[in-house]
Amino acid sequence: MKQLDRRTFLKMAGVGLAAAAAAMLPVSGFLTWSGRDVFKFRAVTGLPKTPLPHYASLVIEGSIDLTGGSGTVTKTLYAGAPDAMSAITLPGTARLIRVTGVKKLGNRLEIAGMIDGGVLSRGEKRSVSILIDRATRVVQADFMGTEVLMRIG
Asked: Model confidence at 32, in pLDDT bands (50, 70, 90)?
């Protein structure tokens, strides 16, 4: 993974081109079943990577119909560490993902999707893959070209 110092991270986030790495960080989130086969989740982690202080919070959340293989997921980078997160979205970092397929492999869900609209950052792909391990409560996703591991709740 790429190493970023504070100055570089803030410059990139300020112009909407954050290419940050995240550490596994057990912070607030949720994982629930809503209805018969509707799966909802929310995972939050601090950026940049530990041991640096967290200046931003990456939030990935969604609602997925496991039977139909559809739903929506959002990825958003907010100003502030997870324990002091603001409602300010860093410019150019919000993504709306349309779920195009879901594979169930035991306790794991492999979610495939496409980013709807917007301009992508360098190294970012329109196709998205998110892995959720319901047993260990870990989410693995890509954030602007960098792999991110997050804990749910």
From this structure: low
